[in-house]
Amino acid sequence: MSAPKSNAPVRQGLSRRQFIGETLKTACAVGLVGLGLGLYSRRASSLPAWALRPPGALAEEDFDGACIRCGLCVRDCPYDMLHLARLGQDIPTGTPYFIAREAGCEMCEDIPCVVACPTNALDHALTDIRDADMGLAVLIDQEACIAFQGLRCEVCFNICPVRNEAISLNLQHNARSGKHALFIPVVHSEHCTGCGKCEEACILDQAAIKVLPRHLAQGKLGEHYRLGWEQKQQAGGALVAPDAEHRYNLPEGMRYDHAGEGLIDAPASAPADTPFPANPLDSLNRRGPL
Amino acid sequence: MTDYPGKTAVAEQGWLKAHRFLLLRRFNQFGVLFMFLLGPLFGAWLVTGTLSSSMTLDILPLTDPLLLTQSMLSGTWPAMTGLIGALLVLVFYAVLGGRVFCSWVCPVNLITDLAAWLRRRFDIRSGARLSRNLRWWLLGLVLAFPPLTGVMVWEYVNPVSMLHRGLIFGFGWAWLILLAVFLYDLFLVRRGWCGHLCPVGACYALIGAKSPVHVAATGRERCDDCMDCFDICPEPQVIKPALKGAAAGLGPRIASLDCTRCGRCIDVCSKDVFQLKIKS
Which of A74, A232, B212, B248 to pair with B82, CA 20 to 30 A apart? Predict the structure, then answer.
């Protein structure tokens, strides 16, 4: 290559090249740092099931972006049951949590922790503490719970701030003694706030009732399920035809009518019209009408 | 002990005068920390929360604007106390100069100043050079995380909140991050954290871009080139245009965003070149 004639364009070209080079280098380095931080944060931002968020907390993925880790909710809790996670704990660093077994939420009427939050990570839309959703109590160990042994306990039922609504007692037959009742605590998800008082108060060495995040605690019936008795009540009558005719595969010489109490002797006048061929192999080989 | 910046000033004007801004700064830094610690240590809850967001006497909310911005970028509209708090902080530092936070309030400054002092004291010259513009890149990264990932990623490592929250709520392993910053400043890069990387400082620098309060080399004709101000300054690049730019029509005001208004140049100058000024 021939040497450039003047110095100025060389210097300019070099400096532009240097500038772009430097910028790319920096962008690369910052990008790598960003990748590292991003990956670390994926791990660091997972909340274990035993740590519960204060009332009004947004769904965990939103909470992690909204909370600025200031600790005001922790300070404004009159019962000092909230903590800020420290680096090294399994909880996102600096975020508030409580452990139900150590101290549950006392469900203050004025919800001071929510009022204190500057970011709406604890949603200020929560004004009735009974609408709080910190988790869901689950009687997770029926083998250990002494109510299932026929012993009277009911501590979780009695300590529950939403008494007789979030937890009710279900009387069942005591098959062991044959003459006593079991007083079984049953949690109702529409009323339970996940405050954790039941878990805190459970008299066992390890609580048999535990508060879990709802996504772990709750099952869900398929959308297509219809409960016949509810449908019947809504419609004001049976929705299936009461006299669905049973025609096929009846014993010879009989017909079926439920209102007539089932199988009825019938004269063997007309042979039953059956869709199945006489040879079962034909039906397997799809020769028949089916 | 060998020569140190401010030796002449101490000899000529006395120790107190040569350290007055340093003393004021330390008083302010420890004072702020003390106010926050009154509650946890003595049960006197004048101030609750941390520098991230605090409530003073149940009436004065203060919120870090960078943190609230990250929170908003993640898609949550803040509560009124948060907005007012951030606005108050914005106005305060917009008037006083953004990086006044860095040198007069931020607790990490105590650590990095200690590292800088040890570097001078033991003449540690090792280390790498790093662009001071990296902080802007990092600030961009910090602000890009919440909208991209939905997570306030910076708060998993931010030494500023780690230290302040650690002092008030307990450290856990967070002291390791502070130790890393200290060692990095001591051995790797001079003024490496506050002067090169910290995105919090970069954000405050932006906030105070139009501040009328500044340090000015009003007596620059008296300068005897002793270099003490360059040696002591955490952002020495800001001094040159103000001090030596007379011919080019620059200064005497230190116009750079990077100036933390720490006032150490005023302290160590035996010729009283520098002054704290308010632009009329």
Answer: B212
